[in-house]
């Protein structure tokens, strides 16, 4: 039984190795700790979505569809199933795992103490 909501996981630099943008067709090697974390969430009934700028607007529809297909194929190869791909947050998102996020204390605008980004 699936749990309500979903967990967002960034692709480049979080789920797949990323050094620098050099090839739109290249998705890096899997990052084992994060791949295992995603598999564990899926086994517990959580919905996991790939949250990536690769499918962000204003890219054209063909580009977005091609990137989505490549990402889903990568997920199937390394995670064992295709995952939804999005660049849009909604109220059902439970959390976001991303290498560029800075966590903020709710209703304060202040970064969470100890965040390595600040």
Task: Describe this entry's structure for a reader.
With 118 residues, the protein is an alpha/beta fold. It has one domain (6-97): 3-Layer(aba) Sandwich (Rossmann fold). 25% of the residues lie in helices and 14% in strands. Strands 3-2-1-4 form a four-stranded parallel sheet. It is globular.
CATH class: Alpha Beta
CATH homologous superfamily descriptor: HAD superfamily/HAD-like
Architecture (CATH level 2) name? 3-Layer(aba) Sandwich
User: Tell me about the biggest sheet?
Assistant: 4 strands, parallel
Topology as a string of helices (H) and strands (E) = EHEHEE
Alpha plus pi helix count: 2
Radius of gyration: 15 Å
Give the end-to-end Cα distance, rounded to a whole number of Å: 39 Å
Structural class: alpha/beta
Shape from CA axes? globular
Question: Runs with pLDDT <50, length 5+?
Answer: none
- Helix amount, in percent? 25-40%
In percent terms, what proportion of residues is strand?
A: 5-15%
The largest beta-sheet arranges its strands as 3-2-1-4
Describe this protein with a few key phrases:
alpha/beta, Rossmann fold, 4-stranded parallel sheet, 2 helices, about 25% helix
Compact summary:
With 118 residues, the protein is α/β, with parallel strands linked by helices. It has 2 helices and 4 strands.
Provide the fold topology.
Elements: E1 6-9, H1 32-43, E2 47-51, H2 61-78, E3 84-86, E4 93-97
Parallel strand pairs: 1-2, 1-4, 2-3
């Amino acid at each position: 039984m699936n749990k309500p909501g979903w967990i967002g996981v960034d692709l480049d630099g979080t789920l797949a190795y990323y050094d620098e943008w050099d090839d739109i067709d290249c998705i890096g090697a899997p990052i084992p700790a994060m791949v295992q974390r995603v598999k564990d969430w899926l086994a517990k009934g959580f919905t996991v979505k790939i949250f990536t700028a690769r499918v962000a607007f204003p890219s054209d529809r063909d580009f977005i569809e091609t990137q989505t297909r490549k990402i889903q194929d990568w997920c199937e190869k390394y995670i064992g199933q295709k995952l939804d791909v999005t660049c849009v947050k909604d109220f059902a998102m439970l959390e976001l795992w991303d290498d560029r996020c800075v966590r903020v204390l709710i209703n304060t605008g202040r970064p969470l103490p100890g965040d390595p980004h600040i």
